[in-house]
Amino acid sequence: MKYISTRGHAGQPTNPEFCDILLGGLAPDGGLYLPESYPCVTRAELDAWRTLPYAELAFEILSKFITDIPAADLRAICAKTYTAEVYCHARAGDRAADITPVHWLEPGRLGLLELSNGPTLAFKDMAMQLLGNLFEYVLAKRGESINILGATSGDTGSAAEYAMRGKQGVRVFMLSPHGKMSAFQRAQMYSLQDENIFNIAVTGMFDDAQDIVKAVSNDHAFKAGHKIGAVNSINWARVAAQVVYYFKGYFAATSSNDQEVAFCVPSGNFGNICAGHIARQMGLPVAKLLLATNENDVLDEFFRTGVYRPRKAAETHVTSSPSMDISKASNFERFVFDLVGRDPQKVAALWAEVDAGRAFDLSASAEFARIAEFGFLSGASSHADRLATIRKVFEQYGVMIDTHTADGVKVAWELAGAVPAGVPLLVLETALPVKFSETIVEALGREPERPADLAGIEALPQRVEVMAPDVDAIKRFITERVRG
Ligand SMILES: Cc1ncc(COP(=O)(O)O)c(C=O)c1O
Ligand SMILES: N[C@@H](CCOP(=O)(O)O)C(=O)O
């Protein structure tokens, strides 16, 4: 499988393969990597995959995207990654082996696809654990090392650090928005004392941190000289790994491949739902993809109006679903590439506007007129909605959900009428409630359950550098740590 850039210049070698882009992260023209074409899944394959355990399903799907790792090695990497021991926080402990079990709220109609049973209690672990093992494998084969520069609004950071801590040849520099994450999220990241982990809290929003990651990656000399890699969903490997659970969820919610499923996805950087879009393009029978935002509703606005208007930091709200406090969604570029007929010149022109801090308007375009073909619908949620949804789900079903999943359930209820009758609707559970206990207490007047392995982490000593969102200062910080 060869990869191309959304902006047309995929770099050297021309149209690289998976292992190159795994280490490369962002394409050299500032665009994002995508496969030359999406692999199609046949009906026979769907039939054969229906009962596969998660690790084997992951191997089958990933081997369509990863053709430069021998099959036996990729199978072993998947088997090592997707185990009940790693994804041990399932609601029903005896279902941990399913890795992403469905918890039905209304059997056959409305369910939660549990994606947050990994070590850091958010869906990021689903891909990040795989990335850790892939990096280790490829770096050892090539005798290379990597310095990962990432941006987090709260969950990518801890998932990456847990996946990479202590790994040979890997350092992680993680930028987070100072003072904007929950106490639990801060403790998860900043309490790690591993020598290869560096936490930097930038005095800005997530978007400022993500802009720094892109600016550093676009300095080609610095990137090459310091072996800079990416773990955000700008790295295609993250998105590819996330495609797998859409298939797993589909099989769990249906009894035959003649049926369809709809998914509702709490969204910020558009990585999770982008994987759902790709699963649908591959031929998974997905009736609808419902996108849910919080008060930072830039994506909802686009799907309703055709206008994409990234907000400035001052217009970005600090909310009680903080991991979705994002106003410039990086993976949205991958979707727009498909929407405009995979025309890199059009994408480059649109993102020249975005990079200059401006909006773009596709509302009158022929492309936006075809948007319904992609199956997207959208909605937004507020703090009051979140509290009401957490309460209602707890009272009606006895299930405690986190604030981001609550945004998803709120929008799922709102848009359920647009899902064809008889089609099950799965809301992706993107984090566990303990990560956001402040809001859970506000909604329910009680503390969420806490897994024993994460007891008392807020009391541990923390290690973090507070810095201005200054690209040159961050580069200097990295250079000093890399030189030692
Ligand atoms: C808990 C949680 N829910 C939802 C999201 C949104 O996912 P995405 O950025 O892939 O759209 C994030 C972060 O990205 C998250 O951490
Ligand atoms: N919500 C994310 C933001 C980064 O998203 P990513 O999927 O692009 O890594 C976070 O929790 O950090």
Task: Summarize this structure briefly.
The protein has 484 residues and is of the alpha/beta class. It is 42% helix and 14% strand.
Structure write-up:
With 484 residues, this protein is of the alpha/beta class. The chain has a domain at 97-120 and 245-444: Rossmann fold. 42% of the residues lie in helices and 14% in strands. The strands form four sheets. Strands 3-4-14-9-10-13 form a six-stranded mixed sheet, sandwiched between helices. Strands 8-5-6-7-15 form a five-stranded parallel sheet, sandwiched between helices. Helix 3 (54-65) packs across helix 4 and helix 16 packs across helix 18. The chain binds pyridoxal-5'-phosphate and the ligand N[C@@H](CCOP(=O)(O)O)C(=O)O. It is an enzyme of class 4 (lyase).
Topology (SSEs and partners):
Elements: E1 3-5, H1 18-24, E2 33-35, H2 43-49, H3 54-65, H4 71-81, E3 102-106, E4 110-114, H5 124-142, E5 146-151, H6 156-164, E6 170-177, H7 183-190, E7 197-202, H8 206-218, H9 220-225, E8 228-229, H10 236-253, E9 261-266, H11 271-282, E10 286-293, H12 298-305, E11 307-308, H13 332-339, H14 344-355, E12 360-361, H15 366-369, E13 376-380, H16 383-397, H17 403-415, E14 425-429, H18 437-444, E15 465-467, H19 471-483
Parallel strand pairs: 4-14, 5-6, 5-8, 6-7, 7-15, 9-10, 9-14, 10-13
Antiparallel strand pairs: 1-2, 3-4, 11-12
Helix pairs in contact: 3-4, 3-10, 4-5, 5-6, 5-10, 10-11, 16-17, 16-18
Bound molecules: pyridoxal-5'-phosphate and ligand LJ64HWYM.
